[in-house]
Amino acid sequence: MATLEEKEQKLEELLRSLAPVIVAFSGGVDSSYLAYKAYKTLGSQALAITAESASVPSHQRRMAEQLVQQFGIPRKIVHSRELERPEYSVNSSDRCYYCKDELFTVLEAVAQEVGSAVILDGLNADDTGDYRPGTKAGMEHLVRSPLLEAGLSKDDIRELSRRAGLPTADQPASACLSSRFPYGVAITEEKLRIVDEGEEALRGMGFTVFRVRHHDHLVRIEFGPEDLRKALNPESAARLAATFKSLGYKYVTLDLEGYRTGSANEVLDELQKQKFKA
Fold it and tell me: Which terminus has fewer CB within 10 Å in the chain: N or C?
């Protein structure tokens, strides 16, 4: 089995073979490490691209900005308009395909502007068994996933990020705000804003691991184990109720199973999941 250092060396070799590159850089753990490593390895032949839209959490935008400022990573900001695509806004189970198709279409135009660069995304070796419709769009747009190709897992990426001093090293997993809605519930900018404000409020209360799940008049909040214990305190519970009712929710609930990524996919049957596995 390859050591972490061997995987990192393989990543560097892959990056050199693909240059020039542009990195789809969201500010999450994986894309942040990839953007950093591409810049350190390739210098001016690497450009990070951040796509802004209403579906990007405010916290993630701040993390992307912090990384750029701290390490001097060259970056270009573009605008992704997935919400204008009916296939995306109706929020079917393949919503992520249309989001990534929109993103990679935008990035293809940038890639041509900077010399037929190769588009890179942050998929890693742990992503291959999950339900990921967006991977189909990546294949169609010839996007490369060097973290995956180098065999780097999420834990590997966190460790390498710590060694590099990246502020994202221990950041909880992040996903677009549209993942907070059950499939079939239409996505709008207003709903995304409410969810984003709710998660910003939780962060302001000192919670660190959580998801705000929107169910029309009801909000279902998932917390990590430590945060769940804190949330069950009567004083905290009362504050949570007041905060989310001020955002328009009628019912404020805590999910007793706690925080878990991809909980929206729990309602999908195995046939649907298999269709879009990486």
Answer: N
